[in-house]
Amino acid sequence: MTTKSRVGVVGAGLMGAEIAFVHALAGHGVILSDRTAEVLDAAVDRLSTIYDKGAAKGAYEQSRKAEVLGAIRTTTDLSEFGDRDIVIEAVFEREDVKAEVLATLDAACAPSCIIATNTSTIPITVLASHVTEARRGRFVGMHYFSPVSRMKLVEVIPALDTSEATVEFAMTLCAAVGKQPIRIKDVTGFAVNRLLHVMMIEAVRLVEEGVATPEDIDLACKLGLGHPMGPFELMDATTSSLCLQAQQIMFDAYGERFRPRPLLKQRIQAGYVGGRGRKGWRR
Questions:
Q1: pTM for the whole thing?
Q2: What pLDDT does residue 1 have?
Q3: Residues 18, 155, 233, 240: which is the catalytic one?
């Protein structure tokens, strides 16, 4: 790996935009792609706000803002990824959506390019089936955590055919952008989400049973367990609908211990999903 890699990111949502951001901060040249220019413009605006907030806290140098944001070029055309050393897919957490993007990237990228997926639950070997056999040695999972600009961990997950050189590239790249990578076996939900969603499911059950309020459960997790955020705050930040989706995938794989709670489904159906500007558990 060169010290300044050429990085592509597909998906300019909450995760993808911040993945692009941390690579630009590290001095990598980044292309960020999504379906429309409007989505890309909104992502760049969010990153500008993130930079300003970080600079106010001393995390970033205000004088570097133009340089960092200028290192992120946007496009709606995946054919522009032909010169990338690595492309990270961060689109909607559904296999059919990812499959279409991965097949397009496989055709657009150079044979030497590594394709990584930021999936949080879908097995990497399953997603690797949507690229050609020639690419599968250079296909790997890189699961960043939200918000990417602050969270240090990345789960690096090799598929059955992923080469050791690809795993080493991914691990080194994570370290180069200030992240701590851990190598995880390729199983549904990997490690962190299997732990996290068991806790989330039990937290919703406690509310269903009237044991405690969402506010008090969040407070208990922060003051009693040392967590930076409680489970309901986290569901509001990442959206309850995404949590339900992850739990359903793990329920299909592992059974009862990941069965989503009825209250979670009811609230989502009523529109209480959280996220930007929408009501959730705590707001």
A1: 0.93
A2: 46
A3: 155
